[in-house]
Amino acid sequence: MPAAKAQPVDVRERILEHATRLFAKRGFEGASLKDIAEAVGIRKPSLLYHYPSKDELRGAVLAHLLDRWNDLLPRLLVAATSPEGQFDAVIGETVRFLTEDPDRARLLLREVLDRPQAMGKLIHDHVRPWVNIICNYIRKGQQQGTVHADVVPEAYVVNCMSLVLSNVATHDCLRSFGAEAADSYTRELLRIAKSSLFRRREEI
Amino acid sequence: MPAAKAQPVDVRERILEHATRLFAKRGFEGASLKDIAEAVGIRKPSLLYHYPSKDELRGAVLAHLLDRWNDLLPRLLVAATSPEGQFDAVIGETVRFLTEDPDRARLLLREVLDRPQAMGKLIHDHVRPWVNIICNYIRKGQQQGTVHADVVPEAYVVNCMSLVLSNVATHDCLRSFGAEAADSYTRELLRIAKSSLFRRREEI
DNA sequence: CCTACCGATCGGTAGG
DNA sequence: CCTACCGATCGGTAGG
């Protein structure tokens, strides 16, 4: 009867949480296994029992983040029906996913900087499919005349991804810029994304 | 007569070059003083003679980058006269400055992630003045009807900065996305920035 | 899950 | 600008 174990929540998951937070805050090289272990409340060798090396922990952290993203995707893609509604759902949920825990954006940006080649392959495998779906909606919108004709779909979507990522990741840093409301930058981001995609009513 | 010294170019500057490159590639914690010194062709204690600590080297690298940026600014701000020409000059030169050496973008992004508070102050001091100038041009454009009325100037400029920075920094990683031309992402970035700012002729 | 310990490497110093 | 060296900390292992 293991009645009074330290914390009931799965230790492996608590390790991932604190590893995500510390990798995001200090970077992979800047966050030591000792610090992560002691944030969880165990010793370094105990952490290495669950994840046998720091590199395997890095991989597990990234896989865990992508799992949460994949949880979101299916209901996101079938949610809306109209082209503009679909777009709002997709970019809105993406922003919400990253804003809910900004460490996700910071970690992803750091991984892209640290290992561009490996992340390129990973993005190609995990993100390409739904990018293609968005691109098809954009092309359909161009045929119907609701989307600007000079949009380059793939490049547009990639730039939007970059923009959302860096907007959330640098949120703390850039908030010191003005006295405006905290989410005014994110609202302007959505305006930029939509304004550069859809033709306005008065144009049609 | 010190005839055959190793390299005639200033050693301090060569240290800054290699430190910029290695900090950008591996991060501050991931790049060791030994690696930087040996890339220059000297030993670690010799590097520490020129920059007495790793933190002072970090500061010098950042200051050097901002100096290059400040070299660019004055001629950039007086270059064009029309609002749209001014905008093209500013964002075009910003892209060129970062594209010329993508390590600049990578280093700045890493610094923002590593030390958001310190970078917030630094941005406030060094970048705020010319952001204000751009914002005034945007507001003038809004009064004249050439710029969309719903643009929030400060938030727009900050988002554009974020977008340019992350676009250049993640260039290597995202190029693997499609078979398109290497600069198609950057061209789409410029289109997004302009399309979400200026009203199209047919609207006016 | 722990204590005890490993060799390697870190930023930095002494001294010339 | 160098060699030689410092204590501290790194990721990881042995053994229980």
How would you portray this structure in words?
The structure is a homodimer. Chain A has helices at about 10-25, 35-40, 45-50, 55-80, 85-100, 105-115, 115-125, 130-145, 155-170, 170-175, 185-195. The first copy, chain A, has about 200 residues and is mainly α. In chain A, helix 4 (about 55-80) runs antiparallel to helix 5, helix 6 (about 105-115) crosses helix 7 and helix 9 packs antiparallel against helix 11 (about 185-195). The longest helix of chain A is centred in the first third of the chain and has 26 residues, at about 55-80. The model of chain A is unreliable at about 1-5 (pLDDT under 50). The interface between A and B is large, with 57 and 57 residues. Chain A binds a DNA duplex (16 and 16 nucleotides) through helix 3.
Largest interface: A-B, 57 and 57 residues
Proportion of residues in helical segments of chain A: over 70%
Q: What fraction strand of chain A?
A: under 5%
Uncertain regions spanning at least 5 consecutive residues of chain A: 1-6
User: Which H/E pattern describes the elements of chain A?
Assistant: HHHHHHHHHHH
What's the multimeric state?
homodimer
Specify the structural class of chain A: mainly alpha
Task: Give the overall shape of chain A, derived from the CA principal axes.
Answer: elongated
- Distance, first to last CA of chain A: 71 Å
How many individual β-strands of chain A? 0
Number of helices of chain A: 11
Q: Residue-averaged pLDDT of chain A, rounded?
A: 88
Radius of gyration of chain A: 20 Å
Major sheet summary line of chain A = none
